[in-house]
């Protein structure tokens, strides 16, 4: 399914703030999720997904000294079709700069963070899934713990990258975990589609949440849409609100 429009002033109840199952999700610690010494690899379909999916977990892993690898599949330059203010040319430069600032705000060790940009075209990853899988496979190694967007997340690019990441991880002998993003904003009635039995909760302290929220606001191009040409914010207030929850959820 596809996500509903999140800038509607009369939003229906959403899974992230209504589902009773959220309270009973088992807590998992970082050591159980990423064994000591293992490298964590985050695969982000678009700039900003690295913070929205695992901005808290990345901080916890960095504090424990885990090697980190970030793969950015697209540069997000197609987020504002038809916009004069945010043309594809401008966004292709601006959005990676936003990611640099966001990672800095998370407090990640930029001197040792391995970051590779794929340069794929966003909003077209379903057609490029095989090539995306080949790209990801080149940067994974046995023993890695890989995180990317859930393959049923309700966004074509998220789903394609999720499928490609899972296949690449299996191919090289890495462990793979899905992270839902848009799915949490489905209407409450869709909560039966969530694989609750696979869900695990990573607890975040107040400062970790604050840094994650601060990092999300680095994506200035995504905070305001252009109503005149029908473009809604990619990071509307409801997502920013969810970013302040004291936990993140991964599927194991």
TrEMBL record:
Protein name: PIG-L deacetylase family protein
Gene3D superfamilies: LmbE-like
Record InterPro entries: GlcNAc_PI_deacetylase-related (IPR003737), LmbE-like_dom_sf (IPR024078)
MF (Gene Ontology): hydrolase activity
Pfam family, one: PIG-L
Organism per entry: Pseudomonas retamae
Enzyme Commission code(s) on record: 3.5.1.-
Keywords tagged on the record: Hydrolase
């Amino acid at each position: 399914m596809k996500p509903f429009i999140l800038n509607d002033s009369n939003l229906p109840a959403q899974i992230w703030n209504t589902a009773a199952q959220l309270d009973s999700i088992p807590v998992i610690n970082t050591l159980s999720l990423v064994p000591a010494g293992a490298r964590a690899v985050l695969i982000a379909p678009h700039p900003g997904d690295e913070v929205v999916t695992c901005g808290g977990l990345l901080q916890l892993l960095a504090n424990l000294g885990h090697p980190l690898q970030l793969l950015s599949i697209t540069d997000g330059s197609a987020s504002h079709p038809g916009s004069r203010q945010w043309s594809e040319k401008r966004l292709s430069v601006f959005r990676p700069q936003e990611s640099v600032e966001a990672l800095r705000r998370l407090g990640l060790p930029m001197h040792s963070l391995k970051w590779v940009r794929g340069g794929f075209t966003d909003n077209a990853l379903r057609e490029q899934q095989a090539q995306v899988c080949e790209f990801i496979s080149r940067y994974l190694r046995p023993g890695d713990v890989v995180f990317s967007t859930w393959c049923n997340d309700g966004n074509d690019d998220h789903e394609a990258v999720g499928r490609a990441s899972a296949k690449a991880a299996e191919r090289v002998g890495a462990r793979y975990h899905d992270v839902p993003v848009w799915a949490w904003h489905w209407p409450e009635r869709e909560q039966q589609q969530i694989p609750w039995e696979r869900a695990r909760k990573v607890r975040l302290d107040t400062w970790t949440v604050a840094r994650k929220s601060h990092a999300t606001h680095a994506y200035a191009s995504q905070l305001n849409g252009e109503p005149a040409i029908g473009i809604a914010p990619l990071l509307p207030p409801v997502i920013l609100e969810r970013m302040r929850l004291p936990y993140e959820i991964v599927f194991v």
